[in-house]
Amino acid sequence: MAKRENFSSKIGAILVAAGSAVGLGNIWRFPVETGQNGGAAYIIIYIACIIVLGIPIMMSEFLIGRNTHSNTAGAYQKLAPNTQWKWVGRLGVLSGFLIYCYYSVVAGWTLEYAGLAIGNQFEGKQIEDFKLIFADFSADPVLPIVFMAVFFLATHFIVVKGVKDGIERFSKMMMPALFVITVVLVICSVNLPKAGAGIDFLLHPDFSKLNGGTVLNAMGQAFFSLSLGLGCLCTYASYFDKDTNLLKTTFSVCGIDTAIAILAGFIIFPAVFNAGMSLSPEDVGPSLIFITLPSVFQEAFVSAPVIGYVFSIMFYLLLILASLTSTISMLEVVNAYVHEEFHIKRSTSALIVTLVCMFFGVFCALSFGVLRDFTICGMTVFGLFDYVASNILLPVGGMCISIFAGWKLNGRIFYSELTNDGCLRAPYLKVVRFMLRYIIPPAIALVLLNMIGVF
Ligand code: TRP
User: Fold this and answer.
1) From ligand 1's centre to the CA of 306, what distance in Å?
2) Exposure string for 329-363, b = 16+ CB within 10 A, e = fewer
């Protein structure tokens, strides 16, 4: 088999991992959760989850991947040969597959909305119009599938170009662009005349809205947003060089991901409050970016329609870039597995994975239209994939990774991998291992029970 490629630079390593992390989870899901859970107080809890849960698990995924230079299933096979741990990797591949299928449907919608924004189709429309547009579009039997397919193909072509010339090069171009767009949008939004209430909402915590459910919800969100639990980052780390600083990479990725999520809040809430919308759960619910925001952008920039026009285009472009760098990582998890474990040429394995995901993606896309009434356990195909992957497989995967890195993995490998054979000083690693052993597994067990509705 051809020699395994590595990323060519340290900054490349950070940007690909950050590209996986920054996605719809930051720009769509995080503001939705923040809106529904009381603003600033939720953000504080979320940051605590990133520190307590996110950082140790991300370090673990990185060290497992870099140590083995293998796809996520192969990694456990190498570190714990002839044990059942390989199932943790395989489970990750399965979750990667499921998330890729339904995530691409929503990513496809962002393409459609970018098209609408460019065609100036939002002009003069009210929220009721946007409700109709969204209902019509998502229920259409053809268009969502076409846009989803475009997304699958774009992801495919980047991944087949290779680890360095495809994934790394693309992330190195897109991540700075994404950051610039985010900052420009924040500046426009916070300068709106009545932005103050939105900024207040993000800065002044109202702890009365918090409860146990909020905390568990923030943990789940931290997982999804950091791309943890399915071996995405483990696969990427298998392309890291020996001298990549895993600790610094972890802190950078967590920092970038959290910063973009909070900045997305500063794009959305000042605009929403400026338009005088009450924060009813429906306004900031899942329809936020396809119904509430297009109408908010209309109202916000009513006196400067050109800025509103450019703002809307940039916003959907931001979503497209963020989604694409994430779908690349999902395809790569599954692709690396098929390519290496079944000894299939990389381009062929990527094509197989893309076609299979596209097939299942069609059922997800139709879940809002012709297959609306086709339910399994009371869920549409889209709902089922989302539920099984994000609510069950990700937390289970995260818990297993934590137990593996805390208990099963040889302490020597743990410390030498994270300190590059003792070259880096990190006295806090003992605390990290303690958390992986005793704190994180029970915490995730709680999230899991909460997500499957036990509480
Ligand atoms: N983190 C990405 C987002 O915020 C989505 C994502 C990519 C993901 N890879 C993942 C989520 C792996 C969970 C696991 O949109």
Assistant:
1) 34
2) bbbbbbbbbbbbbeebebeebbebbbeebbebbbb
Ligand 1, atom 12, lies closest to the CA of: 227
Residue 341 is which amino acid?
Answer: E
Of the given ranges (62-71, 153-162, 207-216, 358-367), which has the lowest mean pLDDT?
A: 207-216
Centre of ligand 1 to C-alpha 323, Å, is: 9
Q: At what angle do helices 86-118 and 72-79 cross, to 10 degrees?
A: 160
Tell me which residue of 22, 70, 24 sits closest to 236, measured CA to CA: 70
Q: How far is the CA of 308 from the centre of ligand 1 (A)?
A: 29
| Residue 257 alpha carbon, nearest atom of ligand 1 | 4
Choose among 335, 319, 214, 304: nearest CA to 268: 319
Q: pLDDT per residue over 54-103, tens digit each?
A: 999 999 999 999 999 999 999 999 999 999 999 999 999 999 999 999 99
Q: Which of 90, 43, 431, 38 minimizes the C-alpha distance to 258? A: 43
Q: Which of 61, 233, 330 to mutate for ligand 1's pocket (most ligand atoms within 8 Å of CB)?
A: 330
Give CA–CA dist 438/118, Å, rounded: 52
The enclosing H or E element of 65 equals helix 55-68
Closest Cα to atom 13 of ligand 1: 227
Packing angle of the helix pair 346-365, 305-341 (nearest 10 deg): 130
Q: Assign residue 164 a region: left if phi > 0, alpha if psi is -120 to 50, beta otherwise?
A: alpha
Phi, psi of 284 (to 5 degrees): -105, 10
Q: At what angle do helices 143-160 and 127-139 cross, to 10 degrees?
A: 70
Q: What's the pLDDT score for residue 279?
A: 61
CA distance 309 to 313: 6
Give pLDDT, residue 220.
87
Backbone angles phi, psi at 70, to 5 degrees: -145, 160
Q: Which residues line ligand 1 (CB under 6 A)?
A: 20-21, 23-26, 99, 224-225, 227, 229-230, 232, 326, 329-330, 394
Is the pTM higher than 0.90? yes
